[in-house]
């Protein structure tokens, strides 16, 4: 039978069973609970794989304890899930390799990231940990924008960058703290060298 | 508001750096070794060229100078290979260094030296502290492309700067640019800078003497002619109100350009061994030009390839042709030809007469320029000398002449 000759059947749309939206429960390290839709979770590769592996049904979600995210606090997780809910269903961007990387910050994201730098730092950590590509892009872009038009001295202040000498000193101090004998050995070696000894041993 | 940049995991750190443009990336790389190591692996840091032209145009002298210093920590040799950037030394009422970048258009930034006592006369938009040899030099950006650095003695300042740039950056000064200065110490400063620069680098690519605003004394001009060597181009931009004698210790550079060359006599010309000579507003007459032309055709100036004189004298071509008839034949003419000089300049040949020796070797081409007979318009005498001319490059109608001017 051709497609044109197929019988037309009226469908009662109300009769079609609508799949119930599933909301997962997550808990931050400070015991705050969040309910996040399945579609929003897809923005995070880490969480998406986790819930897939767990294979929870709607009942499981309600009856079992909330999924704990140990590394992220409630304030940060709230921002992350707000972002995921707003961008749910959007395609995950693929890096096109352009240099410098071009990222535009949408209005919603700009408002969401109107936060202090400490929280922005945590948000980037969270986006990296939960593997949320677009959130990582926009939050990194915000940090990159901080550098615009600044001199190296200003950049050092804004990004808390130690100079090469300070870096070196810190590294030495860390090494010494790890092995207190190392300095003694070094001093002994220098002393022997001054005395004209050819070999240390 | 601070941000703990180095405490970020490596992936976000790299992401952030990939979103910065070259100038920001270079600046941040100069702050810390860890960032420098990450940045070195990134593609965009390899060249200034990744900056869009508009951004380069917006950069001020302070930014450019910062960038140069930052690049020193990175692949500086490559930076110079990739970017068409050059440095000039300027001596005029101001003394300083000019940085030039050849892009869509030529971009220039200047760094001048000034006595610190005059600092309050300079109102700047941006203060800056230049660090040279561990010492801080106060500076100020007065215009977008002008930065003034303040020293106890500006002459010592420019010398310190030259020595520092030569030693730290292995920087070569391409052009020595002299303009007439009304400063009472001008002659002393000029001599001191020339002697100091010559000790650091024995020649320049170009020498530019500009007298359009202010005349330079005869002694100073002679000093420059004798002590500053340009291997590529010597330009002298003059003005009409000076008719006194000038040095005949002349240049050995590849190319010579003199505008308002009324002072440039036959003696000067006979002493000049350049491959390109261009004289504008010259006082050389037909007789003098034909003397030089005959010497060229005889082979006394083996380096010379292109000779061009703009003068008010008339009827020179026929006169010179008549003189050359005695010894050489004119075997035809070139129409709509083009000649490419050694410095890649294209010279149009609307109609050119080919001059050959008696054993039929092509010696030169005299060009008939497109010019009007208006008495106030300059007339051009132009000649190409090409012993390597193969005769097959151009559409040529053979018109034979007898050595004594009779057509075959």
Automatic annotation (TrEMBL), chain A:
Region (Disordered): 166-201
One Pfam family recorded for the sequence: Skp1
Start and end residues of each SKP1 component dimerisation domain: 134-178
InterPro entries: SKP1, SKP1-like, SKP1-like_dim_sf, SKP1/BTB/POZ_sf, Skp1_comp_dimer, Skp1_comp_POZ
Pathway: Protein modification; protein ubiquitination
Gene3D superfamilies the record matches: Potassium Channel Kv1.1, Chain A
Gene Ontology process terms (BP): protein ubiquitination; ubiquitin-dependent protein catabolic process
UniProtKB keywords: Ubl conjugation pathway
Domain SKP1 component POZ positions: 26-88
Comp. bias intervals (Basic and acidic residues): 169-194
Family the UniProt entry places it in: Belongs to the SKP1 family.
Job description of the protein: Probable essential component of SCF (SKP1-CUL1-F-box protein) E3 ubiquitin-protein ligase complexes, which mediate the ubiquitination and subsequent proteasomal degradation of target proteins. Regulates cell proliferation during embryonic and larval development.
Record's protein name: Skp1-related protein
Automatic annotation (TrEMBL), chain B:
PANTHER family: F-BOX ASSOCIATED DOMAIN-CONTAINING PROTEIN-RELATED (PTHR21503:SF8), F-BOX-CONTAINING HYPOTHETICAL PROTEIN C.ELEGANS (PTHR21503)
Name under which the protein is recorded: F-box domain-containing protein
Domain F-box stretches: 2-48
Species annotation: Caenorhabditis brenneri (Nematode worm)
Top-level taxonomic group: Eukaryota
């Amino acid at each position: 039978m051709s497609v044109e000759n197929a019988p037309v059947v009226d469908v009662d749309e109300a009769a079609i069973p609508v799949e119930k939206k599933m909301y997962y429960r997550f808990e931050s390290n400070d015991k705050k609970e969040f309910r996040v839709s399945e579609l929003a979770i897809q923005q995070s590769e880490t969480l998406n794989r986790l819930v897939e592996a767990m294979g929870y049904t709607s009942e499981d979600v309600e009856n079992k304890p909330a999924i704990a995210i140990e590394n992220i606090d409630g304030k940060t997780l709230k921002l992350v899930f707000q972002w995921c809910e707003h961008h749910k269903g959007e395609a995950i961007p693929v890096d096109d390799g352009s240099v410098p990387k071009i990222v535009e910050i949408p209005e919603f994201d700009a408002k969401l990231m109107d936060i202090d730098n400490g929280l922005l730092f945590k948000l980037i950590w969270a986006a990296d940990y939960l593997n949320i590509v677009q959130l990582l892009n926009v939050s990194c872009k915000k940090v990159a924008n901080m550098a615009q038009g600044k001199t190296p001295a200003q950049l050092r202040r804004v990004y808390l960058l130690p100079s090469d000498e300070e870096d070196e000193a810190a590294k030495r101090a860390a090494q010494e703290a790890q092995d207190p004998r190392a300095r003694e050995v070094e001093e002994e070696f220098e002393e022997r060298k001054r005395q004209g000894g050819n070999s240390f041993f | 508001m601070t941000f703990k940049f180095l405490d970020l995991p490596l992936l976000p750190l790299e992401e952030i750096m990939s979103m910065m443009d070259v100038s920001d990336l270079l600046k941040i790389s100069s702050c810390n070794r860890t960032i420098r190591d990450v940045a070195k692996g990134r593609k965009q840091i390899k060249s200034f060229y990744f900056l869009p032209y508009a951004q380069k145009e917006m950069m001020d002298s302070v930014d450019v100078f910062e960038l140069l210093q930052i690049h020193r920590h990175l692949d500086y040799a490559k930076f110079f290979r990739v970017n068409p950037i050059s440095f000039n030394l300027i001596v005029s009422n101001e003394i300083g260094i000019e940085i030039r970048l050849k892009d869509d258009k030529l971009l220039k930034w200047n760094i001048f030296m000034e006595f610190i006592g005059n600092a309050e006369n300079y109102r700047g938009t941006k203060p800056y502290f230049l660090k040279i040899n561990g010492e801080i030099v106060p500076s100020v950006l007065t215009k977008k492309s002008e930065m003034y650095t303040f020293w106890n003695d500006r002459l010592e300042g420019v010398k310190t700067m030259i020595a520092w740039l030569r030693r730290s950056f292995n920087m070569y000064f391409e052009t020595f640019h002299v303009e007439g200065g009304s400063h009472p110490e001008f002659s002393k400063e000029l001599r001191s800078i020339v002697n100091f620069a010559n000790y650091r680098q024995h020649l320049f690519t170009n020498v530019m003497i500009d007298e359009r605003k202010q005349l330079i004394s005869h002694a100073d001009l002679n000093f420059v002619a004798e002590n500053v060597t340009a291997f590529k181009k010597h330009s002298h931009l003059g003005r009409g109100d000076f008719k006194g004698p000038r040095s005949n210790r002349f240049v050995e550079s590849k190319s010579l350009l003199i505008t308002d060359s009324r002072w440039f006599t036959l003696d000067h010309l006979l002493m000049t061994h350049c491959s390109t000579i261009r004289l504008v507003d010259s006082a050389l007459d037909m007789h003098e030009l034909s003397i030089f032309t005959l010497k060229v055709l005889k082979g006394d100036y083996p380096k010379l390839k292109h000779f061009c004189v703009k003068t008010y004298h008339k009827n020179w071509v026929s006169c010179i042709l008549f003189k050359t008839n005695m010894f050489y034949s004119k075997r035809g003419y070139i129409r709509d030809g083009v000649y490419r000089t050694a410095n890649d300049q294209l010279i149009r040949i609307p109609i050119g007469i080919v001059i050959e020796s008696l054993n039929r070797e092509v010696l030169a081409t005299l060009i008939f320029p497109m010019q009007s007979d208006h008495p106030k318009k300059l007339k051009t005498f132009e000649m190409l000398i090409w012993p390597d001319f193969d005769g097959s490059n151009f559409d040529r109608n053979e018109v034979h002449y007898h050595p004594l001017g009779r057509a075959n």
